[in-house]
Amino acid sequence: MAGFRVLPLLSVLLAVSLLVSNLPFVPGSMHLYLSALPLALAGAGYALLQIYLRPTTSTLLKRLLLAATFLAWAVDQLLPPGRSATILGDLVIAAYVLDLYWLAQEQMSPQEGSSRRS
């Protein structure tokens, strides 16, 4: 399980490096990779964690969609501007909206009702 803790930490460190990549002394070509790498690591790490945790099939599929969305977003960062990047970006947004819908549905379910504030 310790290996799963390294990926999120590495992803956070790379996300910080993404912010640093905007400084004037960092070559612009590095920005593409520094923006894609944290997303790819987050998606891959989350997918591996879900496979390790073995949730129910429907939960696993939902969580793997979220992981795949991060991976697709990483790919989108590397694409040149154009139709392919736009379509992939739109698919990523749609997948995030779907995931947020599922999350809201779970939070509004009766078993969560006792934890909601009146």
DSSP strand (E) fraction?
Answer: under 5%
Written as H for each helix and E for each strand, in order along the chain, the element string is: HHHH
The number of distinct helices, counting runs of at least 4 residues, comes to 4
Biggest sheet character: none
- Measured between the Cα atoms of the first and last residue, the distance is 38 Å
Mean pLDDT across residues: 85
Count of distinct structural domains:
1
Query: Residue ranges: pLDDT <50 for 5 or more in a row?
Result: none
Estimated helix fraction:
over 70%
Category by helix and strand content: mainly alpha
Overall 3D form: globular
Query: How large, in whole angstroms, is the Cα Rg?
Result: 17 Å
How many beta-strand runs? 0
Overall description:
The mean pLDDT is about 85. The chain has one domain (about 1-110). It is built from four helices and no strands. By secondary structure, the chain is mainly alpha-helical. The longest helix has 26 residues, at about 30-55. Helix 1 (about 1-20) packs antiparallel against helix 2, helix 2 (about 30-55) runs antiparallel to helix 3 (about 55-80) and helix 3 (about 55-80) runs antiparallel to helix 4. The chain has helices at about 1-20, 30-55, 55-80, 85-105.
Topology:
Elements (H helix, E strand, L loop, with lengths): L1 H19 L7 H26 L3 H22 L4 H25 L11
Write a concise keyword list for the protein shown above:
mainly alpha, single chain, 118 residues
Could you give a quick summary of the protein structure above?
By secondary structure, the chain is mainly α. It has helices at residues 2-20, 28-53, 57-78, 83-107.
